[in-house]
Amino acid sequence: MVEVAMRNHQIRATVTGKDGRGFDDKLQKKAQTYIDKVYEKFNKESIAVVPLQAGLEYNELTNTVGETNQSIDELKKLKRQFVDEVADILGIPSTILHGELADLESAQTVLNKYCLKSLNKKIEDELNAKIIDKTEFVNGTEIKVVGVDKKDIFDLADAVDKLISSGGFNRNEIRKEVDYESIDGGDEFYITKNYEKAAKGGEEVDDETGN
């Protein structure tokens, strides 16, 4: 495909000797030198006038009837395919790399969950291993990497309220999940909803008698 692109608008020409003269090594060298000078002038100047060379006839084959330019769309598709393959390996939605706006929010969520989160964890582990010694780490000193994958606590407000009020999790457990430091008293559990035991079939059970 690269060769196809290079052939587009490529200049092809022939040079023949007049009066039936053939090309020996001396005349061939002379002709090539003349052609090089002509095209150097064409390449550098927008308006170029060159002298005709006696004994040489130049015939350009480019831009003749039947010329067809081959499209380079295949190269663009190939580049996009390579980008998509690497993106899939890294867990990056290709729509983000290509600047597509369709399903952008979903693509961003996938990027944060399957790509950035794991990369942040690798960076975090490496920093803790290289900078924090074992004693400090055991005592609770650690480096926490928080990136653009940080959860929005306002989007999670209702779910957090249900988890804490049901007594299933305490506040510090929730804070750890959303990348916030623990607080004093956060390890206590709270139940703000009335939960009662029920027998099979949905009947209420008396806690004292069991009936």
Describe the structure.
- It comes from Enterococcus hermanniensis.
- This is HK97 family phage portal protein.
- A two-stranded antiparallel sheet has the order 1-2.
- By secondary structure, the chain is mainly alpha-helical.
- 46% of the residues lie in helices and 5% in strands.
- It has 3 domains: 2-60, no CATH class; 73-138, no CATH class; 151-206, no CATH class.
- The longest helix is centred in the middle third of the chain and has 28 residues, at 104-131.
Task: Provide a concise account of the structure shown.
It contains eight helices and two strands; from the N terminus they run αβαβαααααα.
Write the layout of secondary structure elements.
Blueprint: H1 2-7, E1 13-17, H2 25-44, E2 56-60, H3 73-90, H4 94-97, H5 104-131, H6 134-138, H7 157-165, H8 171-177
Antiparallel strand pairs: 1-2
List descriptors.
211 residues, mainly alpha, 3 domains, two-stranded antiparallel ribbon, 8 helices, 2 strands, 46% helix, elongated, HK97 family phage portal protein
The coarse overall form would be elongated
Quaternary state of this entry equals: single chain
Q: How is the largest sheet built, in terms of strand order?
A: 1-2
Rg result: 38 Å
Would you report the number of β strands? 2
Which structural class do you get from the secondary structure elements? mainly alpha
* Helix coverage percent: 40-55%
Which residues form runs of ≥5 with pLDDT under 50?
A: none
The total of helices stands at: 8
Query: Helix and strand succession?
Result: HEHEHHHHHH
Cα distance spanning the termini: 82 Å
Report mean pLDDT, rounded to a whole number: 76
